[in-house]
Design a protein that fits this description.
283 residues, globular, mainly alpha, 10 helices
């Protein structure tokens, strides 16, 4: 796809996202109104999301419902896991968590028709490497365990580094026990993000190193920069900036690790990127 055509599609997604989220924001109130200076940052956040998702849609070899569901589920699931984290941590806020989850689901369901419409696929498009199907169950188990253990390690290391900057804010909240927090990262958020990183690796169809870099960048953008670049009525700016640095860096590293572990290696790369479409590889 030409750069100009892709830019037009990014612009269309950006405008659509803004309209959908603005309308849902007026219909479904979940917390206090954002600060007056949030508007430009909201636009920038949506632009970053549009760029990231258009890259996934443009690179994917899928089409139709499969493409629509795959692209839209990436930001939706990220947001829902963040809401779960917020529910655990932010115990003394006015956020209506069920309504926030409802608004998130509606926003990305309404976005689903965009992807197959803007990114129709040719039947001759080469199928991408399949990170899960291409490996034995022993290799899948080993890579999953390494990926799963890396998430809480990165989470707690990054959290300890920024905690001095957010200590005062969280003194007003009731923090969960460390054991519960560890289990939440190990058994819920970590596995969910592993699945999303594998999905993005599959959709991008890139070689191992560039694929790991791009997956890490998309995860860091969608999960760290885009949501936290917007001024908040909940987080004071110092706390918001500290969390943005924490989440962006840890997610960049985590996305890179998972995509590197699950990406194509050696003969797998040449099979899927230099010798046409293997039989049955389009699944």
């Amino acid at each position: 796809m030409k750069t100009r055509d892709l830019a037009i599609r990014v612009l269309a997604v950006w405008i659509y996202l803004f309209v959908v989220q603005a309308v849902l924001g007026m219909l479904i109130t979940t917390t206090a109104a954002p600060p007056e200076n949030a508007g430009p940052w909201f636009l920038l956040s949506n632009l970053l999301v549009a760029l990231s998702l258009c890259l996934l849609a443009n690179r994917s070899d899928w089409s139709g419902v499969r493409l629509a569901a795959s692209v839209s589920c990436v930001p939706a699931i990220m947001m829902l896991t963040n809401l779960l984290e917020g529910f655990v941590f932010l115990t003394n806020t006015s956020i209506n968590w069920p309504m926030e989850a409802l608004r998130t689901c509606l926003a990305w369901i309404l976005t689903m028709p965009l992807w197959p419409m803007l990114f129709p696929k040719s039947t001759l498009l080469q199928a991408h490497f399949r990170p899960i199907a291409a490996r034995t169950w022993q290799a899948r188990l080993g890579k999953f365990l390494l990926s799963a253990l890396s998430y809480p390690v990165l989470y707690f290391v990054a959290g300890m580094i920024v905690f001095p900057f957010v200590r005062e804010f969280y003194s007003t909240q009731t923090l969960p026990p460390r054991g519960l927090l560890f289990l939440l990262q190990l058994l819920v958020r970590g596995p969910v993000y592993i699945g999303l990183c594998i999905l993005m690796t599959r959709m991008l169809g890139l070689a191992r190193l560039p694929g790991a870099l791009v997956v890490g960048a998309i995860l860091a953008t969608l999960n760290g920069i885009a949501p936290l670049i917007i001024p908040s009525s909940i987080f004071p700016d110092p706390v918001r900036f500290a969390h943005m640095i924490e989440i962006t860096t840890s997610n960049l590293a985590f996305g890179f690790i998972v995509a590197w572990l699950w990406g194509p290696v050696g003969a797998q790369e040449s099979r899927y990127h230099g010798e046409g479409v293997p039989e049955g590889a389009a699944g």
